Amino acid sequence: MKLTFLSVGKDRSGLFAPGVDEYVERLSHYAKVSVVELSESKKSGVQAKEEEGAALLGKLGNKDALVALDERGKALGSVDFAKWLGRQQDAGKDVAFVIGGDEGLSDAVREKAALVLSLSAMTMPHRLARLVLAEQVYRAFTILRGEPYHRT
What we know:
Elements: E1 2-8, H1 17-27, E2 32-38, H2 45-57, E3 64-75, H3 78-90, E4 94-99, H4 107-112, E5 115-118, H5 126-144
Parallel strand pairs: 1-2, 1-4, 3-4, 3-5
């Protein structure tokens, strides 16, 4: 299985990237992992959302099950998320996790998604969402394998 974390914008603060790197390293024991950061659109509003959405969709592979991160998405517990990820793995799918820019995700991205996922009802910076997502994906693999991390 290949996991791709696609996002718009970079972590210029330096706060979250080390944590993402740590979980990507841990995830590499279970799957092939890549992190792709796309540039933010120079446009604003709907135009930015559409341009960034097209760029994100252009990075998807044929076998990718798209997971779009959106506050209006489905809230899953860690165990249910692990089960969903396990079904994708059993089906021979790769998974691409997509986090939009400041304007959010385009309708085209959400419509193409196999799962529209909400990490929280609270608003959080996109870079923090990437860290939370990476940790939850790692947790999902430990759950699927019955490893002790989830119980800590």
